[in-house]
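Deliverable D5.2: sample structural annotation.
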Amino acid sequence: MAVAAVLVVLLLLGALLVRQFVAQPFTVPSASMEPALQPGDLILADRSDRDTAERGQVVVFDGSGYFGTDGAGASGRFWVKRVIAVGGDRVTCCTDAGAITVNGEALEEPYLPAGTVPSEIPFDLEVPQGRMFVLGDNRGDSTDSRNLLGAPGGGMIPVSRVVGSVDAIAWPLSRRGAL
């Protein structure tokens, strides 16, 4: 009996350590990242990438104090978005061809559904160091940095709020795989 109790404690401790330092599971709450991520998908945030952000990465971040709700009516603490620009980048929308530019270069966005307008909200801004500008892939149904352009911080989220990067869908099995 004592051996079983010790094993249970060790398993729980191991799971806690994995969650804290390796990967943390999250459920996608809304359609803002469609088609790459669907509501209800279980994703794993790679904790080794916490407090970092790279252009093009899908990240989970703590949006408390920045966003209200996640669009699905749930608490708006954790958000899943794509990093469009990072500290020092100038991001602009949109060119005559309808593209978002980062540092004067048109952003290639193969993850957007065909016919998607990159943004209906124009912007031209420089991302401060230590911050990131994030957008949902489903631009017409996403609360993201664009919604906070006039707010303090100008829609830029501190990179220190990143919980981890998302590279794959863990569940459901029919959608399991890399992003």
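Annotation notes: Residues 22-178 form a domain with the Umud Fragment, subunit A fold (CATH 2.10.109.10). The helical segments are 2-21.
The annotation will be released with the project's public dataset once the embargo ends.
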